Amino acid sequence: MPDSRSTVPSAAHTRLDDFRQQGRVQAGSIIISVFGDAVLPRGSRIWLGSLIQLLEPLGLNERLIRTSVFRLAKEEWLRTEPIGRRTDYLLTPSGQRRFEEASRHIYASSAPLWDRRWRLIVTVGELAPKAREALRRALFWQGFGTLGGDCFVHPSADLSAAFDALLAEGLADTVGKLKPLLAADAQFGNAASDVDMVNGAWNLERLAGVYDGFVGRYQPVLDELRADAAGDIDDESAFLLRILLIHDYRRLLLRDPELPDVLLPADWPGQKARLLCKELYRRLLAPSERHLDTHLQLASGQTPPATPLIHERFREDDPLGDGRA
What we know:
This protein has a four-stranded antiparallel β-sheet, with helices on both faces. The chain is globular and about 55 Å long. The protein is built from twelve helices and seven strands. 51% of the residues lie in helices and 10% in strands.
């Protein structure tokens, strides 16, 4: 068995170093990724001291982590539960629902099928400029495109979940001025096509550039692990890379409306990014789980086991390392 403390492929080392050396880190977003990817499968709770120890190797200091966790609790993502002199942080029911909804998109092995119906959210009445911008930003992070200033469009969003997310963002007053609509696919002579809708609502060139950047960061890591017959990487580095991989991919998907293939340009880089993420995640899973078995603890001192469902993430009939990424 290889020494779990010594094997760090150079491309992995570069990615971790790049993250540590960036000027500003949004620790709250990283912590959300840790809870969704690593803590949720182990009972949705973790001792604060354990979370600090897990994230310190990424260059996040204790004060930053404590401040960020306190803020997430204030925003009702997390709640606390004292155990003696220690404190566990747990996902709130609403926080867990948000993660489970996100997981259906993050760990999917392929893009969803399209029912050829557009989901629309239309503003009814006047919105103040500040409220309109807050709405635009909130729906942008759910993948909605804009058609003019009063209509937001998505090919497959769950409109109920979209409204729940707006309420969670504190936009209750704005929600009362929104109308959800489901548009059936119909042919009306010279009416705008679905492709026209896409080009009007989203900047696909910009999104493609973001996907290309993701592939550029992680393809060298995957190439090195493929080239190594043993696929060796130390357990801690595997965990840290897994968190950064899912963190970057999660934030990328938040911008992506997950358009069906029929509406995307040929050679769309989103599919390449999905396959890369799937294979790299599966290669990092076993060593990263060993790291969590050793270092993730509850306030009671216990280490909760991972649910077997974690091994179903990114599962597909295609063999590992099929070369398509």
